[in-house]
Amino acid sequence: MSRIAYVNGRYLPHRQACVHIEDRGFQFADGVYEVIAVRSGGFVDEAPHLKRLHRSLGELTIAPPMSDAALKAVMRETVRRNRVVDGILYIQITRGAAPRDFPFPPGVRPSLIMTARAQRPLDPKILERGATVITVPDIRWARPDIKSVALLPNALGKQRAKEAGAYEAWQVDHDGNVTEGTSSNAWIVTAKNEIVTHPADHGILNGVTRLGVLQVAHEAGLVLVERPFSVAEAKAAGEAFLTSTTNFVVPIVRIDEATVGEGRPGEIVRRLRALYSDFALKGVVR
Ligand code: PMP
Predict the structure, then answer these.
(1) Domain ranges (residues) in the chain
(2) Cα of 183 to ligand 1 centre, how many Å?
């Protein structure tokens, strides 16, 4: 089946779907995006993704290209035209196309594109055995809380992980603390069974999955602490895991050369994955 992309008001065959060379997304990474999981043809966590999209746009003072009602209609049509049942929807909004100049061009219309594709479920082996991460310096700009398309440091980190045979790279700030993965949030479980993740300040992207996991963990009466943790603390933790839209909750059993806990997925991570998966699937909207 040929894929269809939405580009500025038109549904086009994927191969013909183009934006202008002077689009500010291409020239300056002057744009934002969202990735939303599709399950059984519906959206997981749609409301918080749209809320975060608006926050990112607001932080960059990019005007929403259309109303939320219209955006939701295009989201559904993009998924429908691509016949995606289980997969992802990608939304990108840039400031628009204008002759290349740093200041914001007056009166420019934002660009909106969407794509959707099926995605195979996570390899069950990763869940059974746990995944590995490497650590890399966090070399990003000071506002990774904005979901901008400026993802070069993330791509470099993920490539290093791939070359090392690891699943993800955890980024480490100047103080030696883990901020987050290149496309996921980072968590540990301490010896006291505290579930620890970096606070949602300007230093990380406040993951929608992160918020869902915080909610289900709180409802289950688990102890949550939002504070930075060091690489050394992570390596000595009882359990570790990552969260993201495409992964939900994935156990981490190795950080660089260090084995986490007993080197297999722990009880709390398993429980959180089950709780979050349940929560996510119940919240699917069509
Ligand atoms: N951090 C970064 C840097 C990411 O790119 C992502 C995935 N978009 C996440 C965290 C996880 O966010 P979410 O749970 O909303 O997918």
Answers:
(1) 4-118, 124-282
(2) 5
Question: Along the 286 residues of the chain, how does pLDDT read in single tens digits?
Answer: 569 999 999 999 999 999 999 999 999 999 999 999 999 999 999 999 999 999 999 999 999 999 999 999 999 999 999 999 999 999 999 999 999 999 999 999 999 999 999 998 899 999 999 999 999 999 999 999 999 999 999 999 999 999 999 999 999 999 999 999 999 999 999 999 999 999 999 999 999 999 999 999 999 999 999 999 999 999 999 999 999 999 999 999 999 999 999 999 999 999 999 999 999 999 999 9
Active-site pick, 147, 158, 192, 235: 147
Q: Class of the 4-118 domain?
A: alpha beta
51 is catalytic: no
Q: Are 170 and 217 in contact (CB under 8 A)?
A: no
Q: Which two tokens stand for residue 56?
A: 């990112």
4-118 and 124-282 share one CATH topology?
no
Q: How far is the CA of 13 from the centre of ligand 1 (A)?
A: 28
**35 Cβ closer than 6 Å to some ligand 1 atom:** yes
Q: What's the CATH code, domain 124-282?
A: 3.20.10.10
Cα–Cα distance for residue pair 215/218, rounded to 1 Å: 5
